Amino acid sequence: MFGEPYGILSLLPIAVVVIFALITKRVIEPLLLGTVVGAILLYGLSFFPNWIGDLLDTMSDPDVVWTMVIPALFGVLIAMFGISNAGTAFRELALKYVKSRENSLLATYIFGIIIFMDEYMNALLIGGTMRNLTDKFKVPREVLAYVTNSTGTPVSVLIPFSSWAVFLMGLYGSSEFLGSNGFTTYVSTIPFMIYPMVTLIILLLFIYNKVPMTRYVKEAVKRAEKGNLFPKGSNHFSDEIDDEVQKDQVNTKKPRLINFVLPIISLVIGTIVFDMDLIIGVIIAIATCFILYRLNGTMTYSELFETSIKGIQDMVELIILIIAIFLLVKINEDLGTIEFVINAVEPIITPLLLPGITLLVVAFLGFTTGNYWGTMGIVLPIILPLAHASDVNTALVLGAMVSGGVFGSHVCFFGDSVTLTSASTQVSNMAQIRVSLPYALAGLIISFFIYLGLGLIM
Predict the structure, then answer these.
(1) Which of 135, 224, 241, 249 could form a disulfide with 140 if both were Cys (CB 3.0 to 4.6 A apart)?
(2) The whole model's pTM is what?
(3) H-helix or E-strand spanning residue 87
(4) What is the rounded CA–CA span in Å between residue 309 and residue 290?
(5) Rounded to whole angstroms, how far apart are CA atoms 402 and 172?
(6) Can you tell me the distance from the alpha carbon of 307 to that of 267, in angstroms, rounded to the nearest whole number?
């Protein structure tokens, strides 16, 4: 079905990224090295000018530009909450009801469900907001990152009014096997999105210590109890937080809850009203801050503009990382990585195994390529004919496909969801993954066996 000009070599850039990330505990450098390795495979001795060309093409791609603009705008919003003392007002309110470590994480869990419209909004807003609360109860920042990320994409796909839902509805509506009503098709698959449901259950059990803590989590909890909330290698984040704490201690601005609540409401409403356009939503929220903070005297015009610049500057490293991620995605597409893996597993698929294999293949590709939506777009026209020919429940197979995409989004250490969550909680991607991966793998295994059972009875 697909050409395989590079065969198993198409997996080499991914292998390089994973190995060097594990060795260096860093992300940007391994990603760039992986793209160079891919460029050598694609272009041979002329790889360098072509690598530069691919880099420039990536940076000019509208989808990439959109993804770079989002964290820059959220950087402005989060900085305004900090300088205006709005975050302090929210924390003081929350502390009236939250009295324990577990409840602080439960509040994060609930807030994550409320902000379901977009996983980018979830990652940046929840992490940036709730860290002020969970720090009070000595929650390790990598644990906060795990909880934040686990209520991002898993919640977004379970509610049919999110960015993921909009994408998948369009994908389903364009398929000749599914008819034109993408919304109806999507809703029918929600009961079969097993991995997101299992993830949310495991997360709730994790919050209340009803599942075993891994060695890394135990070490993180012990470290946090001694007052160090950040994992090793995050010293620059710790210094940044110390500076922020010192500023808070001399911040004489009156904490006003409306300075936090009204911009958040305008963000959510603006995003929904303008057809789930998150950029417009964030701009409206920032404009709300400008108007509100001036009207109530919280900040001067100079402070507003200086804070906006600082917020963008704080996101520069993240924006560089995003560019590296999308460049690797492009290299993988050119190498045919996804097609190679699909061709490799297609001969072993049987009607009974179709949902489970779909889950594992999409999960593997999402985890290794960071291209969740692209993977589903490629996999869909393959699994639908197989489902029809084998008389397998279509909604079940689609639910498995989406579950695999959610897993990839949840644990790909260089993926956008993990990257944005790490940025907002101020830990490295690898620190977050060391917490989340064991629980995510447990959820994937449980989901696989559930799909096997459903394949038997449906």
Answers:
(1) 224
(2) 0.81
(3) helix 86-95
(4) 14
(5) 12
(6) 19
Helix locations, 296-348, DSSP H? 301-313, 316-335, 337-345
Instruction: Please name the residue ranges forming H helices in 227-315.
Output: 235-250, 258-273, 278-295, 301-313
CA distance 103 to 137: 10
Residue showing tokens 């620190």: 431
Burial of 171 (0-12, 13-18, 19+ CB in 10 A): buried
Six-digit token string for 282: 């964030």
**Does residue 257 surpass a pLDDT of 50?**
yes
Q: Alpha carbon of 123 to those of 26, 115, 145, 146, 390: distances in Å?
A: 20, 9, 9, 10, 39
Q: What is the pLDDT of residues 265-323, one digit of tens each?
A: 998 899 888 876 878 989 999 999 999 999 999 999 999 999 999 999 988 887 888 89
Tell me which residue of 72, 60, 61 sits closest to 278, measured CA to CA: 72
* Identity at 165, one-letter amino acid code: A
Q: Cα–Cα distance between 147 and 133 in angstroms, integer?
A: 14
Predicted pLDDT of residue 47:
95
